[in-house]
Specification:
Layout (H helix, E strand, L loop, with lengths): L10 E4 L3 E4 L9 E10 L2 E11 L4 E5 L6 H8 L7 E6 L2 E2 L5 H7 L1 E3 L12 H8 L8 H6 L2 H18 L17 H13 L5 E5 L7 H18 L2 E5 L3 H7 L2 E6 L2 E6 L1 H5 L2 H6 L10
Helix pairs in contact: 3-5, 3-6
Length: 285
Amino acid sequence: MSEFHFEKGKMVPVPSHSIIPERDLGKPPVLECNHLGIDFGGLRAVDDFNFTIGKTEIAGLIGPNGAGKTTVFNLLTKVYAPTRGTILLNGMDTSGKTTAQINKMGIARTFQNIRLFSNLSVEDNVKIGLHNAYKYSALEGVLRLPSYWKKEKAAHERAIELLSIFKMEYMADWQAGNLPYGAQRRLEIVRALATNPCLLLLDEPAAGMNPAETAELMENIVKIRDMFQIAVLLIEHDMKLVMGICEGICVLNFGQVIAKGTAEDIRQNPTVIEAYLGKRGADPC
């Protein structure tokens, strides 16, 4: 992987016994999980999960396979209803909300396994993400009223603008399923951004990417955070990526938090080294 240097914000404590970037002090955290948990029958898949993310923080959620990371994402997006605990998004309780309502509130995500509309064009995939911003009635659509064409034009321009973040605007007419693997990953991120989130959840965004693509991804995650002034929470097994850009990191094992802190804190934590990396004295990087 080529070298990528990202100057992280200084992490400072907040009253909830968490840390957030110093630049986010005075703003409500974008996400607060308090004693979050879910049971599947007699199995406690996630238990007493507490985590706070600052307004513009790039945060990481790491741990061994089966630790409960994707389950946390499913709780945040209401794929699963928590058995206990609360999730606050910009200070608002998300209990009782549907997945669609959570997306409108500002959480967008990508998935471990790419979930694009493979038979549609790249642009149409992005336009699907724009449904929160550009709406027209059935009558407008059927009769192709001027208001319909005005909204279609605006959606087209916005889709191209978003694709340009990853230099993909020339691919707008391509069939999504025919894109190279790395481009499909990037398109998923663009589609998520189209929903205008305040918190972007990335589930193993570097999976299957080569070192050059991963380095470019790191730069683009930082670019997205700066451009949209949003928070990013990512699940990732590539420790160079995690340690390189994540400001706050939470480590899960068997559904429980075993460590939280900065990359340096996590790198030196003996519990993490033993449980996650397999042997004492190893370096995550």
